Structures are given as C-alpha cells and as structure tokens.
Amino acid sequence: MAKLYWTSEVKEIMDSHLGKLTNDLLNDKTMNVDQVARAVMQLRLFHEFADEIIADMEEKDRVEDEERAARMRAKAEKEAAENGTEEIHT
Questions:
Q1: Residue 84: inside a domain
Q2: What is the pTM of this model?
Q3: Is residue 89 part of a domain?
Q4: 72, 64, 67: which is closest to 80 by C-alpha?
Q5: Which tens digits make up the pLDDT trace of 41-83?
Q6: Residue 87: which domain range?
Q7: Is 61 helix (H, G, I), strand (E, B) or coil?
C-alpha cells in the first residue's frame, strides 16, 4: 500500500529539493553567466509550478475539511433528533 503524504509534507519536500538545486547552482563554478541566468529562469519556473501545485492541494484540503465538518454536523444533528435531545451546536 502506498504511503500517503500531507500537503505540508509535499510542500516541504518540494521546497527542500528546490533549495538544494539553488544551492548547487550557486556553488557551481564551471557555469558561465549565460548558463547561470538560464538555470535561474528554470528554477523560478519550477518554483512557480511547485507553488501552484501546493496551492491547488491546499484548496482541495480546505474543501475536504469543510465537507467533513458538514457531514459530522449532519450526523450529530441526526443523532440528536433520533435521541430526542436538543440540537448540538458546533
């Protein structure tokens, strides 16, 4: 079975990887100015792409959390109605 990751863990992994790539680039003394400029542009694109993926994942997490909370409220209200008790406010 595959291991599941939280969005925050995926963000940390991506940020760490991009940080390592940036550090490697800064420490590479064999690259000329044009090569460094190209590599920086690529890293910026990769970072923007990673940020967009994380933002999408965070939005999906937010929607799922809201849906889960609504289901739990509905379940609690149903149980309260079946038991003849007052409605539970959350």
A1: yes
A2: 0.70
A3: yes
A4: 72
A5: 999 999 999 999 999 999 999 999 999 999 999 999 999 888 8
A6: 53-90
A7: helix
Residues 26, 40 contacting (CB under 8 angstroms): no
Helix axes 33-82, 7-27, angle to 10 degrees: 170
Q: Which two tokens stand for residue 57?
A: 């994942």
In a domain, 76, yes or no: yes
Question: What's 5's DSSP letter?
Answer: -
Both tokens of residue 31?
Answer: 């690259």
Q: What is the dihedral of CA 10, 12, 17, 18, to 10 degrees?
A: 110
- Number of domains the chain contains: 1
In tens, the pLDDT along 9-22 reads 999 999 999 999 99
Separation CA 53–CA 24 (nearest Å): 24
